[in-house]
Fold each of these.
Amino acid sequence: MSTPFITFEGIDGAGKSTQVQSLARLFRKMNRDPLVTREPGGSAGAEDIRRLLVAGDQGRWSVETEILLFTAARRDHLERSIQPALKAGRTVISDRFADSTRVYQGAARASTRRVVDRLHSLMIGREPDLTFIIDLDPAIALSRRRVPRADRFENMGLDFQKAVRTGFLALAEEFPDRCVVVNGDDSPEKVATDVSDVIGERCP
């Protein structure tokens, strides 16, 4: 795995963004120049679509429309950011990728997983080399939020986040070769150590 594509997944508030930055610092210490990115977003076109997806009321889009928008954003992200970086020999670290769509739109909100997988196969055709799922009790994650968020998905409540957590843990069982579950209830420093230990094993 000379130029790995690494993703972080988990419920909102699990600490993914913190761990993305921590891992990026680790790679920089190894004289690597990682591309740090996110979804939805990560490229100019995908960021435009992100603004459509995260703003507004919860019922703004149907699940099917969300799947199409996320796939369009991901395609642009893949073409303009991820693939060029990997071809240039850069490690890519992304805060979310296709697994989030599998869970948020394909499992937690509707039985549309087959649609998600079919579109992914047709339009994306790429999985991460390694995925960290930061697992945390949704009640704890919600308690960490100091102010209300404008993000539609973060405001869908505790029951929705519980369904998302269940979906991510099921995904880890479905893809055991690339998914590693990390305890997000530990301190950020302990989580970062757990992540770096896995990196040491998988990316020597």
Amino acid sequence: MCGILGVVSSGPVNQLLYDGLLVLQHRGQDAAGIVTASGSTFHMHKGNGLVRDVFRTRDMRNLQGATGIGHCRYPTAGSAMNPAEAQPFYVNSPFGMVLGHNGNLTNAEQLKRDLFRQDLRHVNTNSDSEVLLNVLAHELTANAAGFRLTPETIFAAVAGVHRRCRGAYAVVASIAGYGLLAFRDPYGIRPLIYGTQVTEQGVDYLVASESVALDTLGFRRSRDVAPGEAIFIDEDGVFHSRQCAENPTLNPCLFEYVYLARPDSVIDGISVYETRLRMGETLAEKIRSDHPDLSIDVVIPIPDSSRPAAMQLAGRLGVPYREGFIKNRYIGRTFIMPGQAVRKKSVRQKLNAIGVEFAGKNVLLVDDSIVRGTTSREIVQMAREAGAKQVYFASASPPVRYPNVYGIDMPTPRELIANGRDDAAIAAEIGTDRLIYQDLDALIAAVSSVNPAVRSFEASCFSGEYVTGDVTAEYLSGIDAQRNDASLERAGSVATTQLDLNLMEATG
């Protein structure tokens, strides 16, 4: 999961991109980058860390131009802390181009081999985004009329990308001297939307991962980029679009609505906030039908994304809703942190219980999901230490049993608490007196009810069914070796050592 932005404006875009990345910071806290274009010249600044830490005033002054792209990253492939893998990526042949990518290519290794052996292009990092950039650059070469690009040849190049690349990808790219390009994979897994802003000088365009970026920056939503579609805004501000894929289908990631996206976003015509309310409604119905014996005194959410579901659930059950945990907002997301020891410590740093809401009560805790179970186990224990009589636990989503390969760096199957366990075994693992999961059919119905036109979703982490049809047991075994805690800890140690060496060299 990453956040991407692209802007074409009549004035400077550096502040727009910076402000937009702040709004999309929840999509990635590992690294951030901005590239602006003035004529045929790119101005780039990127680095590891939060947006506010990467950019200083002097950096912003150097980001000149009326076109640009921005990216905030958390790693789904490649080294967790390698500064070279901060995006956007740049290539200068045959056309100067920068690219930012949200998603994950499932055939990145094969593409890397093809680029080297057949296309005579070199990839310098382990990032699949650099692979995607070079595939696009090669396709531009193959389709260009001499050394001049037109919207037609650009769209033909995107069609070539669709034929070669597998997996999930939402992309923004800036082509020096030509304009801004954005496109979405033929399955529409990762979100992408664009909007406009009318000024005295003309019409400005903004492309973003989530509609909240448009809202906060004063742009009016136009529409989502369709699966397989490419849009191109040239240097004169003329908008072009084309469907570049054969037989595209819309399968938005279900986990975006459960957890990843901001609640004030609308993705593919579906309000994220409204879906979370409806998740609470369906979860309340399941508790009524399957667990009528539960005596619940209070419903308490695990902040923040489970709040709408918990409020609606409490209302449907006629049980008081209370805030029982205070969250430290300066601690990162725990399910993407390497190593169980670090993850457990982070949970206690991130949440603190309000004892009066637990003492002597039967408490129903509501969370958006249960991934490794580390957070859930610690939270249940915190509730007991605060004096709860009984602690029940409800998940607004079904059991997460399978890895996500489309841009969410979920752990391997053996590290997922629901893998190979039934509900009773999971309840015992996290220490709860009763565990209630949302049913997958109910979750899909809850999300689809907000926009009945969307009927199919990418739900592989719940179902084990991968919509692109190319995810094999061998592929899953390969990502298992890359993503398990031991390998992440080793990668983190190596990256930290390299950063220390870089600092020593910089300071003499």
Amino acid sequence: MSPADSAAGHVPRTLNPAQWREATAHHEARADRLTADHRDRRSRGQRHPVWDFMFEYYPVSPGKLRRWSPGVGTLLADASASDLAHLKFFTESAAAAGLAFDARAYVGKRGKTVRYVRDLLEATRRNPTHFDCFGLHEWAMVYRQGEHRHPEPLRLGQAGTDAVVDAHTVRCTHFDAFRFFTPEAVGLNVFSPTRQTQPQCEQAGCLHANMDLYKWATKLGEAVPGEVWLDTFELACSARELDMRAAPYDLAGWGFEPIRIETPEGKAEYVRRQREISREADGLRDVLIDITERVLAEASRSEPVNE
């Protein structure tokens, strides 16, 4: 049984010492593979206009990403706190002879976050899904703006970029994209998302909402199995690549051929990839929702695990 199946199906599992040591090593090796290029660039002081975002906007270092957790509902047999010192909510259980997740202590510290994440992800799942934004949020971030946050040149130049925005309807539902719109672009958006209305606006077709599953998995911390956490990271990387290939910047020199969303062919390609990412995100979103529900349920009926 996989960690995701255990988390989603609420089936307790026990890992013997060989299993949890192997799982730890596998997670660390996978995280190292996923971050190898970034670590190499960082060692040489080299920036990257696409991938640095994954470690700056989401403030998770490659070292932190290596920290494995078995997730809620798992007993690590014959393990002690010194074996996995980074696991703060796995405590030694005298009754079970190993480390177990202390849902009561976890919810005591992070209950508000758990409920917020659950409610937001459930709302995202319920809200109408849109595949008609065509990545124009990135274009709206440079609309009629002489100076930009990024040094890369605009593929169509400023006038050409502005003309694309003027020729389209901007339909951005994600607050953390909308808040970077230029003042001239704000009034062009069909939606007016705010932090307060995020649960009403967030929807499962949004590239950034699906990218942010990595953020929510990170915030849920040790309750999330390490494999699921890295799955959300890989999904976020796929979404980031699509986001930047459809952006107005000229990134061909960095190996990112543009998806020309100003053309019918580019729009079709963008929507096809957007739908693929959305389908993958749907499964991960459901797993994260199930994790929050399991944590809250276990906390409500459990005694501290070391009693």
Amino acid sequence: MCGIIGIVGCEPVNHKLYDGLTLLQHRGQDAAGIATCEARKLFVRKAPGLVKEVFRTAHMLRLRGNMGIGHLRYPTAGSSKVSAEAQPFYVNSPFGIVLVHNGNLTNAEQLQSELYKSDRRHINTSSDSEVLLNVFAHELQRAAQSLKLQPEHLFKAVRAVHERCNGSYAVIAMLVGRGVLAFRDPYGIRPAILGKRETPAGTEYIVASESVALTGLGYEPVRDLEPGEAVYISKTGELHQQQCAPKIQLTPCIFEYVYFARPDSVIDNVSVYSSRLNMGRKLASKIRKEWPQHDIDVVIPIPDTSRTSALELAMDLGIKYREGFVKNRYIGRTFIMPGQKMRRKSVRQKLNPIESEFRGLNVLLVDDSIVRGTTSEQIIEMAREAGANKVYMASAAPPVSYPNVYGIDMPAANELIAFDREVSEICEAIGADGLIYQDLSDLVDCVRELNPDLKEFETSCFNGHYITGDVDTNYLSWLENKRADAAQEGSGDEVLVDVGIQ
């Protein structure tokens, strides 16, 4: 899960890209990057850190031009300190291409071998995004035999990408001096939305991971990109669109609605906020059914993502709702922090209990999900230290029992608290007096009720069903070795990247 954005404007876009990345900061805290283009010159700045840390005044002044793309990195493999893996990635042939990618290719190793042996292309990092860029560049080289680039050449290259690449990918690429291209994998696992704004100088276009980046910048959302679709905006503002996959099935990642997306975003015509209200109601119904004689005095959310569900749950059950934890907003989202040691350290720095809301009470803590159990165990301990009589736990999502291979850092099955455990065993492991999970069928209904056209969802972390059909035990074992916490914590620092291509 990363954040991506691309803009073709009628005036310099550097500050719009910066503001757009800030609106999407929740999607990645590891690194940030922007590439802009003026005439035939490319300007790039990328480095580890938050948006406000990566871009200073001097960097912004260098990012010239009326079109550009941006990226926020969320690491799912290797070390979070590998600066060379910050995006955008660049290749000079053909035409000069910079690319940003949200997702994960499940056949990246095979593609890298093909690129080296057959396509004569070298991959310099362990990032599958660089692999995807080189696949696209190679196919575009084959499709466009002259310097006169046409939209059909781009669409032909995207069709070839769909044929060769497996997994999830929402992509925005900029061709130097020409325009911006965006496309989505044939399952539409990762989100991408198109927007526009009319100005006296003409129409400006934007593509981003979430609608909040559009509305926050004053753009009007047009529509989500279809699975397999490619959209090309020329530097003069001409919009071209084409379906590039022979077979498509919209199957968005349901975890976007549970945790990743901002509540004020709309993804595939579903309000994230409304879906979380539904999660609270469904969970309240299950509590009434399974805990009819409950003795819960107060419902307290674990901020921030679970607030919407927790408030609706409390209202539905007629139980008092209280804010029991104060969040330090200068500590990042612990789920997307690399390394178990860092997560454990950050939980207590991030949250502090208000003792008066716990003392002598039976408390129901509501979280969006329970992944590794690190946060839940420590928060339950903090609630008891604050004087809670009993501490119950509710998860707005089902048990996370399987690794995710489509761009979410759920690496090794044995790191997941729900792997090979019954609910009672998980309850004991995190130290709760009671634990209740959302049912998967209810979670799906929470989203589908808001858009009946969504027939399927990517739910592999809950049920182990991998929709791309190429994930087996061998792949999961390989991925576990590559993405396990031990591998992340064992890697060292690399040289800071600050690229300025003239």
